Each structure stands twice: as structure tokens, then as C-alpha cells.
UniProtKB/TrEMBL annotation:
All residue ranges annotated as the Cyclic nucleotide-binding domain in the record: 1-59
SUPFAM superfamilies: cAMP-binding domain-like
Organism: Rhipicephalus sanguineus
Gene3D superfamilies in alphabetical order: Jelly Rolls (2.60.120.10)
InterPro entries linked to this entry: cNMP-bd_CS, cNMP-bd_dom, cNMP-bd_dom_sf, RmlC-like_jellyroll
PANTHER family: CGMP-DEPENDENT SERINE_THREONIN PROTEIN KINASE-RELATED (PTHR24353:SF147), CYCLIC NUCLEOTIDE-DEPENDENT PROTEIN KINASE (PTHR24353)
Name of the molecule in the record: Cyclic nucleotide-binding domain-containing protein
GO molecular function, one term: protein serine/threonine kinase activity
CDD domains tied to this protein: CAP_ED
PROSITE patterns assigned: CNMP_BINDING_2, CNMP_BINDING_3
Domain of life per record: Eukaryota
Alphabetical UniProt keywords: ATP-binding, Kinase, Nucleotide-binding, Serine/threonine-protein kinase, Transferase
């Protein structure tokens, strides 16, 4: 552990017992988050990451492949698995 480190995130995400304990050997400031607040932060972060990925796919990738934003313009088997 050290400055800026976090612990207990898995326990708070999955509502389970923490697997470790932490003991401060010097003065420390500790922030505590309610489980619902932490989950909301994680959800928002995940949604932001998803939106960034979607925007990338709509711009960089589609331009590189020569497709427009319209799904009708892509070849029909582009995203279908092949056997």
C-alpha cells in the first residue's frame, strides 16, 4: 500500500467479505464510500468507456474500412461468424 492506493473495491462491488486488512503505520486520511455510491461511479465510468469505444468505431474504424455510419452500407456478412 501507499499514497493514492485503494482497497476493498472487490468486496464493495460484489458484496462479499474483504480478503485483507490494512493497518496504517503513520497518520493517514481514509475516504469511505457507500456501496451504492461506489457502484454508481463504476457504472458511470463503464458507460463513458463504452461511449468512447462506440465513437471510435463510428469514426476511425469505419473511415479506415470505407464504411459510412449507416449499417446498410456494410457488407451483410461482415460481423457474422464463419464456420
Amino acid at each position: 500500500m501507499g499514497p493514492g492506493k485503494a482497497f476493498g473495491e472487490l468486496a464493495i462491488l460484489y458484496n462479499c467479505t474483504r480478503t485483507a486488512s490494512v493497518k496504517a503505520v503513520t497518520k493517514a486520511k481514509v475516504w469511505v464510500l457507500d456501496r451504492r455510491v461506489f457502484q454508481a461511479i463504476m457504472m458511470k465510468t463503464g458507460l463513458q468507456r463504452q461511449e468512447e469505444n462506440i465513437q471510435f468505431l463510428r469514426s476511425e474504424l469505419t473511415e479506415a474500412l470505407g464504411f459510412s455510419d449507416r449499417t446498410e452500407s456494410r457488407p451483410p456478412n461482415l460481423f457474422k461468424p464463419t464456420v
